[in-house]
# Entry
Amino acid sequence: MVSTADREYKETKKIILKKKNLNPRFQKLKDYISKEFLVDVANICVDVCKTYKRKDNRIQIILKTNKDCEKFINHQYKNGVLNFFDTENNKKIYDEIMTNHKDIIKFPDLKTFIVYSSFEQLAVEELYNSIPSKVIKELKKNDFYDFITDYNQINIKFDSKENFDANYEGSFLLYKMNCCVDFL
# Structure
């Protein structure tokens, strides 16, 4: 899930808005991940990722917030190679899937990999992009924080106006790049 146009984003948004339920096949895995890692899993999507050389099962764990997503990403070098995902947490989830949730995998004979993404990052981007640039330019710094609530369809709750003004100079662009939001 890398864009608000992605099927996974649209499906996850519906789940968060309670217009759709999580696929029941994924509920036990969601419960395990939520309890084991103390995170809020918004959705789980399983598909086949095709490259020019091969196909693999891809399991996407979509977490509600950036903070939750950070528990699975570490950006550390090991033996000269960038290790993007936290290998210990990733292994725990992979082992759980292979032991107790193998039925969610579409093609058992293919390799399986897990990716993690944050719904929050794209939701804030969608919110920002829904406001016409002409309107943004006309707003004064003091009006923007209050104004943004009119476009807030998915109930993003901002941490505080004081933080917005003091640390982000009233700039939603800076704010969205360093998300500090929660969902109602």
In short: DSSP finds nine helices and seven strands in the chain.
